[in-house]
Amino acid sequence: MPARLPPALKRLGQHFLIDQNIVRKIVALAAIQPGETILEIGPGRGILTAAICAVAERVIAVEIDPQLYAYLAETFAGCRNLDLRCGDALELAYESLPERTVVVANLPYYASTPLLMKFLETRAGITRMVIMLQAEVAERLIAKPGTRDYGVLSVLAQRCAEISWGFRVSANCFRPRPEVASAVVRLNRRSLASVGDEPDATFAHVVRAAFAHRRKTLANSLRDEGWEPAQIAAALSSSRIAPTCRAESLTVDQFVTLAKAFRT
Ligand code: SAM
Fold first, then answer.
1. Residue nearest atom 12 of ligand 1, based on CA coordinates
2. What percent of the chain clears pLDDT 70, i.e. is strictly above it?
3. Residue 1 has pLDDT above 80, yes or no
């Protein structure tokens, strides 16, 4: 008897892909190479998992829902290259992933940003990601300075990865149908040498403080977030950034320079 399909749980962001054409496009964008391990977060009912297992040497798939996990374990029982795990992907030991791991996933909406930040903060292992998330979040990921969507997420993500737009996916490609459109993006991790190996805490702190008051000048916004005016003036001057700038006009490289100036 075939395994029984569990009902979709809204609280876990269970909107399952039903369109094989979208599945093919995601796998093509991932351009999986020999020797790479694929990490799929939230295999769900397995539509993407099956397509990935057909082309990848090794697949690790982490599903939080025990009922779906049991369904998948039965459905994929004969699949030798699938390492199926039941658990919360936010708790995964990312640092122990194999070298040359590629994330390919249709992420649950409620956790897409924290999961993405986990992937980006992983120092080793993950080399690129092809992920589906809300179109609105995808727009923020690729946004350039001076645009409405450019903000904390754009800067933190673009510092760690080169991000390119894949394609938009209509809500009609899922069951149950979500309320918003989705999009697929590809993120190629920058090398550690280009990102720098200093702790990221100051960088993230500076970026968040700079955007905390979007309408204020950079100097005022940083001051409102607790930095001393003299320290701000010195850091801006050594970074050659005008104190009257607004956060949204700074490039990612300028944020990197500014964070370094605050560290010294
Ligand atoms: N990959 C499937 C597809 O494309 O049809 C399902 C995608 S669905 C948008 C998201 C999946 O992630 C669901 O199966 C959900 O149970 C699972 N999920 C939600 N939160 C999770 C978490 N923290 N860790 C692992 N899986 C999670």
1. 42
2. 96
3. no
